[in-house]
Write a structure and sequence with these properties.
This protein is 69% helix and 4% strand. By secondary structure, it is mostly helical. The strands form 2 sheets. The chain has a 4-stranded antiparallel β-sheet with strand order 1-2-3-4, with helices on one face. Strand 1 and strand 2 form a beta hairpin. The longest helix is centred in the middle third of the chain and has 18 residues. The termini are far apart.
Length: 513
């Protein structure tokens, strides 16, 4: 149903409030409040009736209702509809906006959306994410898209497992909302871009979008968008080891989530409060916050993205403390929750933690199956963590005694070839295979020099000189030391220079028996 008034219209089907070409941004509860008042505009609606209608089965204070009314008024005033909602002291509220002549939903004055656009939005409502992406791509080739549809396109790309394809439509949505004059909506999309950049560890880009979102939202009253900005600020502060700053911002995010009835935001803020408290040594307070965040996922209607992120944070924090009992319990809880949801926002990282727990339990075969699937997921969604997953797989195979089955391509770059040669040289030295030691170390030195890495080459030369000295090959050892010394002196490597001096002492002919 569409409610039309002189300056705006309320579309219940799309959950949009439109003022001409603008779409006003309203929180879900605020939109529900506005719809209920519009449906009952012929009377004063008591406060208790509004609370029951908008917050069913939830106990909230009058302050929540007052804030929702205030936000609805602010949005309508921006559309030129001042005094659309009137307060009747000790009675309630009444919707007093002037109805448009075109009150029949079929008598719309606006141009209906194109059939292709309707199909894309229908696919979005049905959760057909690949279909949504394909439809929006086709539409975009022949016609432009509004900010809301660009957002839908980006969200569908993420859900379809193509998160990097979400960035271009989101960047365009920021421009579209800014041009429209809707800085709050533009700020929220900038927050979403910041989230993605943080997830991918692209910190320079993340900070740029974080500051852009801050500028767009700086004149907005307290709102959930600013709460998410605080959450991201706290997360980046944790990564930069600013623990006090992270705790302060995370508390702001947690409080904003509670204030604006956003369980995702509240749970995310709680998680980072717990992490920061642990780092500061406040163990009891930190564990309490983490446990509460985990429980909030199980007991609330959190999105898969937020729930997955919270469980990852909780489990990782427990594992860092070697709190295996708590780790196991939350991993079991996450597994059940993930199965209920059908997917998680961070399936790769969370499944990697699950594999680690399975290793502790001795379920190596199951752990290997989980981690091999996880490696493929991380390669697409979080490549910065892929190496850690390979390490977990290596741990599994070492425990099983399989020393050949988990190698990724260890010679895909010259630097890796040099590292591999050095490792094989050390293994040969431990096993007394002299010829292999010389061959592997000299190969590693040659490759390091080729890629202009003289310091690693000099470190290997020092090690090689010591081995040659032990074998009595004085001339070869001195050659290696002479080549290494200038690089080590320039680098100020005191420890290795002292080692070289000791080796030279061993090579002094006067000390020969």
């Amino acid at each position: 149903m569409i409610h039309r008034f002189a300056h705006f219209e309320i579309d219940e089907a799309t959950r949009e409030v439109r003022a001409g070409e603008r779409v006003l941004t309203l929180q879900p509860r605020v939109f529900d409040l506005l719809v209920f008042l519009a449906r009952n505009r012929d009377r004063v609606v008591p406060k208790d009736e509004l609370l029951d209608a908008v917050w069913p089965e939830v106990t909230v204070a009058d302050g929540s209702l007052q804030r929702a009314v205030s936000l609805a008024r602010n949005a309508l005033e921006a559309a030129g509809a001042e005094n659309a909602i009137r307060t009747y002291s000790r009675q309630g509220y009444r919707f007093c906006a002037e109805a448009s002549v075109a009150t029949n939903p079929e008598a719309t004055a606006t141009t209906p959306p194109l059939p292709a656009l309707v199909a894309a939005r229908t696919a979005y409502a049905a959760g057909d994410w690949p279909g949504v992406v394909a439809r929006y791509e086709a539409i975009d080739r022949v016609d432009g898209l509004e900010g809301e549809d660009l957002q839908r396109w980006a969200h569908a790309a993420r859900c379809a497992g193509k998160p990097h394809e979400a960035i271009p439509p989101l960047e365009r949505a920021v421009v579209a909302f800014t041009v429209r004059g809707d800085r709050r909506r533009a700020g929220w999309v900038a927050v979403l871009i910041t989230m993605l950049r943080v997830e991918w560890r692209e910190f320079a880009l993340a900070k740029g979008w974080y500051h852009r979102a801050s500028r767009l939202l700086e004149h907005e009253p307290p709102c959930r968008e600013r709460g998410y900005l605080d959450f991201l600020g706290g997360r980046m502060a944790l990564m930069e080891n600013d623990i006090e700053g992270a705790l302060a911002l995370s508390r702001c995010a947690r409080d904003a989530g509670e204030q604006f009835n956003d369980p995702d935001l509240e749970g995310l803020g709680l998680m980072h409060c717990g992490e920061a408290s642990l780092y500061l040594g406040n163990i009891r307070e930190g564990l309490a916050a983490l446990d509460e965040a985990g429980a909030a996922v199980a007991g609330s209607k959190l999105s898969p993205w937020a729930g997955g992120l919270i469980y990852c944070g909780v489990i990782f924090s427990c594992m860092t403390r070697a709190d295996w009992q708590r780790t196991t319990q939350w991993t079991d809880q996450f597994t059940r929750w993930s199965a209920d949801k059908g997917a998680a926002g961070y399936p790769g990282l969370c499944q990697m933690h699950r594999a680690e727990v399975l290793i502790l339990r001795g379920k190596l075969q199951e752990a290997e199956k989980v981690i091999r699937s996880t490696i493929a997921t991380l390669a697409r969604q979080a490549p910065w963590a892929e190496g850690e997953a390979w390490k977990v797989l290596g741990d599994i195979l070492v425990v099983r005694g399989d020393f050949s089955g988990a190698d990724p391509d260890l010679t895909s770059t010259p630097a890796l070839q040099a590292l591999l040669g050095r490792a094989r040289g050390e293994l040969a030295a431990a096993e007394g295979r002299t010829a292999d030691v010389l061959n592997q170390f000299r190969t590693a030195i040659r490759i390091s020099q080729t890629i202009q890495a003289p310091l690693p080459a000099s470190q290997i030369r020092c090690r090689l000189a010591g081995l040659l000295a032990d074998q009595g090959d004085r001339e070869a050892a001195l050659i290696e030391l002479t080549a290494a010394a200038p690089i080590l002196e320039e680098a100020g490597s005191v420890g290795l220079l002292n080692h070289c001096a000791k080796v030279r002492g061993l090579l002094d002919p006067s000390r020969s028996p």
